[in-house]
């Protein structure tokens, strides 16, 4: 059984206000609840595997719901923990990797912003392990559009529920404010799983 991680609004979070943050957090708790419901059905043996069918079946519905809700949980935890950067300074070691694959930091930012504008669900700067390169991934839902070996370094939620209460239709301001509020120390920690960054 999964428990929701604690994420609290604080003065370092500037991309969203407290009301928007709290509303978003409650949606995250909802995904935890649904995942646990699905998991309990599997554990109880009430998943009807013998009837599994790709057009319609209870088992298919559970498997779709399982990946949808678990991806939602993971992505929201990554998002909540990579906002609130006190100082928006990109560590040199991370900057070098971005420049390696995008030429300049500005090129990466332009591509990230364009990807976010084009996405309906999530935009992720990922280390893609097949190509061994950083790339900006575009997801339209929690479970659609991600590259399987793309490890998330920066996660931006662009579902309307993430910003609409505060920003209305001004998605671009939300994206720009997110970029000012990225917690680059968290990003560096994630990149260090693959690179020895001093
Ligand atoms: Fe969200």
Automatic annotation (TrEMBL):
Species whose genome carries this gene: Anaerosporobacter mobilis DSM 15930
Annotated protein name in UniProt: superoxide dismutase
GO terms assigned for molecular function: metal ion binding; superoxide dismutase activity
One Pfam short name: Sod_Fe_C
EC number, as in UniProt: 1.15.1.1
Top-rank taxon: Bacteria
Family label: Belongs to the iron/manganese superoxide dismutase family.
Transmembrane residue ranges: none
Keywords from the named record: Metal-binding, Oxidoreductase
Ranges for domain Manganese/iron superoxide dismutase C-terminal: 94-190
PANTHER family, A to Z: SUPEROXIDE DISMUTASE 2, SUPEROXIDE DISMUTASE [MN], MITOCHONDRIAL
């Amino acid at each position: 059984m999964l428990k929701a991680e604690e994420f609290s609004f604080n003065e370092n979070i500037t991309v969203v206000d407290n009301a928007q943050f709290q509303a978003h957090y409650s949606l995250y708790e909802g995904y935890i609840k649904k995942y646990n419901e699905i998991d309990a059905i599997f554990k109880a043996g009430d998943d009807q595997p013998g009837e599994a069918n790709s057009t319609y079946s209870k088992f298919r519905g559970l498997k779709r719901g399982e990946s949808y809700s678990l991806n939602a949980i993971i992505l929201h935890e990554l998002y909540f923990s990579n906002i609130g950067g006190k100082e928006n300074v990109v560590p040199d070691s991370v900057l070098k990797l971005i420049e390696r694959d995008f030429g300049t930091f500005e090129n990466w930012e332009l591509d990230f912003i364009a990807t976010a504008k084009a996405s309906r669900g999530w935009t992720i700067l990922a280390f893609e392990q097949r190509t061994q390169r950083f790339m900006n991934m575009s997801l339209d839902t929690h479970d659609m559009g991600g590259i399987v070996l793309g490890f998330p370094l920066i996660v931006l939620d662009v579902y309307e529920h993430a910003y609409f209460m505060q920003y209305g239709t001004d998605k671009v301001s939300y994206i720009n404010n997110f970029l000012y509020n990225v917690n680059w120390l968290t990003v560096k920690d994630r990149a260090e799983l693959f690179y020895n960054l001093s």
